[in-house]
Amino acid sequence: MFGIFASLAEFERELIRERTLAGLAAARRKGRRFGRPVKITEAKLDEIELALDQGESWRNVAKRFNTSTATISRRLQQRKAN
User: Fold this and answer.
1) What is the crossing angle of helices 42-53 and 69-81, to 10°?
2) Residue 37: what pLDDT?
3) Same domain for 15 and 49?
4) What is the extent of the structural domain holding 6?
5) Is residue 43 domain-shared with residue 58, that is, in the same domain?
6) Is the CB of residue 69 less than 8 Å from the CB of residue 62?
7) What is the DSSP letter of 30?
8) Is 31 helix (H, G, I), strand (E, B) or coil?
9) Residue 25 and residue 79: Cα distance in Å, rounded?
10) Rounded to a whole number, what is the distance in angstroms from the first to the last CA of the chain?
11) What is the pLDDT of residues 5-53, one digit of tens each?
12) Which of 3, 20, 58, 81 has the CA that lies 20 to 30 A from 67?
């Protein structure tokens, strides 16, 4: 009896998984983005690059944009990679 219930539960779990993956794929096709929002937009990134090029310190730029130097560095690397 437990074997039958276990098989049914496994089958139902697989159905739920397939429906979830299909829903996520459909949302992605419609342009839905998942995850944490980007803190530094492309416009802010332009301003950051300009400030750094003008000689402003990384720490001062980070304070001005209310973020960390690591976040700035990561976003600049992402931009260069694209």
Assistant:
1) 110
2) 87
3) no
4) 1-34
5) yes
6) yes
7) T
8) coil
9) 26
10) 56
11) 999 999 999 999 999 999 999 999 999 989 988 889 999 999 999 999 9
12) 81
